[in-house]
C-alpha cells in the first residue's frame, strides 16, 4: 500500500527508498514514514469535508504520532492540531504551528498547562469536567481573556473496539454524561462564565472503529441534545466535534471503509438531524489520529537470535520490541511483517517474533509465515505509524529508535536515535553517594 513496493533487487522499497539502504544509513530499529501516504490520508479527510459543503476543521490527533516535522505536514495540509499535554503543545509551538488552530484536550489539564495554552492563544479548549470549567474560567479571568471552549460529552455510544480504547460509554473517566443531566448542567454553567466562549460540544466514541453506525448514533445524540439545549437555555452550538477513531487495516481481515465513507456518514447525519429541527448547520470538527499516520509507518528491525523448540515454536528475536511497539503487549494487537531484504521469497516457516526485553510478554507477532529466516535479515513490521513511537519507552534502558520520513526517493531524519547520554542525562547521583577517592 502507499508507495511501498518490492524493487528489482527483491527488497522492500518505501517512498522510492530501498529499506536495506535505510538500514545501512540509519541503523535499526528504525521507524520509517511514507510521507506521501500521510499527506494522502490528510487530503482524503479534507476533500471529503469539502464535498459535504459544511464548514469543518480536521484536527490531527497528535497523540498518535507527534514530532515537529509532523506538525509541519499538518500545517501544510491546512489542518488543525489536537494536543493533550504541555509536551504536545510545546512541540507544536516549537514547530511554529499556528496556535489558533490548536485544540487542547485532556481530563486533567493542570493549571500550568492551561496558563501555557492561554498565553499561546490556542484556538480552543475541550473542557472535560466541572473542575476544569471553573479553573479555566478563573485563569482566563486573571489573564483578562475570553477563551473558546467545547464541552466533551459522553454520548452513551459504545464502539465495538478494545475495552481500553473505547471511550464513549457512560462508565468512562472522560467528559460530561449525557444521560444523567450533567452535560446539560455543564452547558448552563459554561454559558454563564464571563471568560468562556462556548462553541459547542465534543464527542469521541472510541478508536479503531470500522462501522459508521457509532458515528451516526453519536451525531444523532448530539443533535438531539443541541435541540434540547436551544429550547431550554436558548444556547446555540456553532461547532460540533465528533472526535476521531476511524479504523485502519492492520491485518488481512480488518475491514475499514474509505475515509470518505465515514465523513459522509457523519456530515449526512449532521445535515439530517440538525436540518430536521431547523437548527443552523454547525461547523463539523473531527480528530483523526491513527487513520492519518497508522498505515504510513513501518518499523525495520534486525533479526538477532533464534530459538527453535521442536514441535512447539520457533522464536525469532529482533533488536526492539515492546519498547518501540507496546501495542501487542497492551492490547493484544496484531501486525503483519515481511523480510525486507528477501521480499520476493516464498513463505517457508511459521515463526513468532519476540522482542529483546526481559519479559515473556514482549512478543510482537505470534505465528507468522516467513521465508526461512537468517540472523541478520531485516524484518519490516507494517502499520506501525500510530501509537508506536508515541508510546515508546526506555524500559530496560533501551534507547528509542530514530524516525525517518521517506518521499520521492529521499529520506530525511526527523527524530535522531537516542544516545547513551539521553539514557543517563537526567540521572543525578546524590553527593553523599559519590565515591571519595
Ligand atoms: N480524539 C480524542 C478525544 C481521543 O481520545 C482520541 C484517541 C482521538 C481523538 C484519536 O483517535 P484515533 O483517530 O487515533 O483512533 N493507544 C491506543 C489508542 C488510544 C486512543 C486514545 N484516544 C492504541 O494504541 O490503540
UniProtKB/TrEMBL annotation:
Please state every residue range assigned to the domain named Orn/DAP/Arg decarboxylase 2 N-terminal: 37-293
Which residues are noted in the entry as pyridoxal 5'-phosphate-binding? 245, 287-290, 387
What pathway or pathways are given for this protein in its record? Amino-acid biosynthesis; L-lysine biosynthesis via DAP pathway; L-lysine from DL-2,6-diaminopimelate: step 1/1
What does the entry list as the binding residues for substrate? 290, 327, 331, 359, 387
Q: Does the keyword Amino-acid biosynthesis apply?
A: yes
Q: Which cofactor does it need?
A: pyridoxal 5'-phosphate
In terms of domain of life, where is this protein from?
Answer: Bacteria
Q: Which InterPro entries match?
A: Ala_racemase/Decarboxylase_C (IPR009006), DAP_deCOOHase_LysA (IPR002986), De-COase2_N (IPR022644), Orn/DAP/Arg_de-COase (IPR000183), PLP-binding_barrel (IPR029066)
EC top class named in words = lyase
User: What does UniProt give as the signal peptide span?
Assistant: none
CDD domains for this protein: PLPDE_III_DapDC (cd06828)
| Record's function text | Specifically catalyzes the decarboxylation of meso-diaminopimelate (meso-DAP) to L-lysine.
Q: How does it assemble?
A: Homodimer.
Please give the NCBIfam families that the UniProt record associates with this protein: lysA (TIGR01048)
Annotated protein name in UniProt: Diaminopimelate decarboxylase
* Species of provenance: Paenibacillus hexagrammi
**Which gene name does the record give?**
lysA
